[in-house]
Amino acid sequence: MYSFLIRHLSRYISLEPQEITLLTESFKLKHLKKKDFLLHQGEVSRFETFVNKGCLRAFHITNKGEEHIVQFAVEDWWIGDMYSFLTQTPAMYTIEALEDCELLQIDKNGLEELYLKLPKMERFFRIIIQNAFVASQKRIISSMSQTADERYLAFIEKYPAIEQRIPQYQVAAYLGITPEFLSRIRKKFASK
Amino acid sequence: MYSFLIRHLSRYISLEPQEITLLTESFKLKHLKKKDFLLHQGEVSRFETFVNKGCLRAFHITNKGEEHIVQFAVEDWWIGDMYSFLTQTPAMYTIEALEDCELLQIDKNGLEELYLKLPKMERFFRIIIQNAFVASQKRIISSMSQTADERYLAFIEKYPAIEQRIPQYQVAAYLGITPEFLSRIRKKFASK
């Protein structure tokens, strides 16, 4: 149950057996069924969540009721509303399971305790958050500069092998284009 | 010269005198004149930069030649192109001094050495990057959802006291509105 998380952490920090025990005691297992919600916009996000199995999407609903997809997550990814989690204020995102999911979660107190007991987790989360920040900056730049073709190629680079698991209208929503236009782009690149 | 940086770091981590010495040896002073460039889009960013004095802007130039301002920085802020710095690939941003600036810089090898010699810097940068990530997420949401009035209020909350130091057409560019429209918004809130 914890083997994916430990393998994931070990890519960034080295872990002794007693440290692995401490980690497994800090994370709790959670199951979601397809279409269940992990978080609703406006609620306070109580957990940081590692995806052991499954697929989720995070989206923001505007004042006009439009849905904007900000992130997908599959195995080996983290998902959550970090602002809400850190400041314990209402979440900007809703997070929904797109498949049955097996998740590992840690709450704010648990994470603060873990930083104290296992300071190398500072390094781990520094690197993880750094990568998330860089991806977020790239997304801002991409929305300013890139054509739909370029955004599609960036999507399949960022989320390899996820395309077959997500309904096409949701990929289109993430890219900010219509499903018909996405279908034309996919045909173009499939024939190359 | 290092007192602002040490005070800034001490807000997040406690520092012993010998650790302060190590830090001051790791950062190098750099001066920029108004309108000088710290980084050009397409170059590799070699430094992370702390602003001791002055004001800068980071902007991205699209394929069509449009400038998009992604960040301002004043005293006590960090500025740089983190993606370029971390991956040593071409920068997505150009960074320009809007006033004469006094900056403290650390290069990639210097920072990696500092993490090894002073692991509490992992905690410091974990928190700093976390805040930057959260600000970046808020900016994405804000560009989707907020009216120009709301974006203006978010700007003066994020950059208090910066408004008088930056040309109004650049504030307008950051907010994605015309200078004339910004002028109308400012008058409305000034009279409240």
**End-to-end span of chain A in angstroms?**
41 Å
State the CATH class of the largest domain in chain A: Mainly Beta
Percent helix range of chain A: 40-55%
Q: How much β-strand is present in the residues of chain A?
A: 15-25%
Q: What is the level-2 CATH architecture name of the largest domain in chain A?
A: Sandwich
Q: Structural class from helices and strands of chain A?
A: alpha+beta
Unreliable residue runs of chain A: none
Give the rounded overall mean pLDDT of chain A. Answer: 90
What's the CATH topology name of the largest domain in chain A? Jelly Rolls
- Written as H for each helix and E for each strand, in order along the chain, the element string of chain A is HHEEEEEEHEEHHHHH
What's the number of structural domains of chain A?
2
Q: Give the radius of gyration of chain A.
A: 18 Å
Quaternary structure annotation? homodimer
Q: Find the biggest chain interface.
A: A-B, 30 and 30 residues
**Overall spatial form of chain A:** globular
For the largest beta-sheet of chain A, the strand count, sense and barrel status come to:
4 strands, antiparallel
List the helices and strands and how they pair.
Two copies of one chain form a homodimer.
Chain A: H1 3-10, H2 17-26, E1 28-32, E2 37-39, E3 47-53, E4 56-61, E5 67-73, E6 78-79, H3 82-87, E7 94-97, E8 101-107, H4 108-117, H5 120-145, H6 148-158, H7 168-175, H8 179-190
Antiparallel strand pairs in A: 1-8, 2-7, 3-6, 3-8, 4-5, 4-7
